[in-house]
Amino acid sequence: MGNALTRRAVLGGALAISVATPLRAAVLTATPRQATGPYYPESLPLDADNDLLQIAGRQGRGAGEPLHLSGRVSDLNGGPIAAAGVEIWQCDAQGRYHHPRDRRGGVKADADFQGFGRTETNADGLYRFRTIVPVPYPGRAPHIHFKVVMRNGDSFVTQMYLRGHPSNDRDVLFGRLRDSQARDQLAVDLSSAADLDAGGRRAMFDIVLG
Predict the structure, then answer these.
(1) 17 part of a folded domain
(2) What's the structural domain count of the chain?
(3) pLDDT of 19 over the 80 cut
(4) 3-class DSSP state of 176
(5) Alpha-carbon span 50 to 62, nearest angstrom
(6) Looking at the predicted structure, is the pLDDT value of residue 5 above 50?
């Protein structure tokens, strides 16, 4: 993620800073980057809001366990990043993506599941989505892809996993993470959201950009 201060600007301004003056130390650790993957939408759905379970013009609801997903996007010092676009995409409850290249098993993707959603962080850097608890498919543990797009056009991509899922260690990406802090940053706990959806779950996934 590009910093608002370029390296040249930092070096150019170094003469104006006393050697004895300590720079402000970062208090957070940047969220690890992960691959975009092969199934980012070739074209965005007409309904691309933050509720992936209900598609405009359709009566049905996406299959799967409802998940109320929220979090905060911040910088390394904990400052909120407002008006950033947050996108998510994931497979449906059958393990299929809304993508023409995903033909695994010959099963059609769930027409009532949006597959992709987009929202914008508020003044406090907060975002939220209504989607489904991710499910595994061959080679991958349950995960949700995230992309954050800044107002200056810079973007950051990562993936969110379920803490303690038995397939995490076998996942082609999560399994390669040997740093326990990186694993912890990309994994979330699930709790009940029965107050919002029957049988629903809740998770929080904060993203720190550095």
Answers:
(1) no
(2) 1
(3) no
(4) helix
(5) 14
(6) no
Q: Residue 29, by phi and psi: left (phi above 0), alpha (psi -120 to 50) or beta?
A: beta
pLDDT in tens, 160-174: 999 999 999 999 999
Q: Give the domain CATH number at 201.
A: 2.60.130.10
CA dist 158 and 148 (Å) reads 9
Which residue is it, tokens 């996993």?
A: 161
Residue 120 near residue 104 (C-beta atoms within 8 A): no
Give the predicted TM-score (pTM) of the model. Answer: 0.86
At residue 74, φ and ψ (nearest 5 deg) are: -140, 170
Rounded distance between C-alpha atoms, residue 69 and residue 92, angstroms: 16
The amino acid at residue 8 is R
Given a contact cutoff of 8 angstroms between Cβ atoms, the answer to whether 126 and 115 are in contact is no
* pLDDT for position 46: 84
Tokens of 44: 């965005």
What amino acid is encoded at 122 in this protein? N
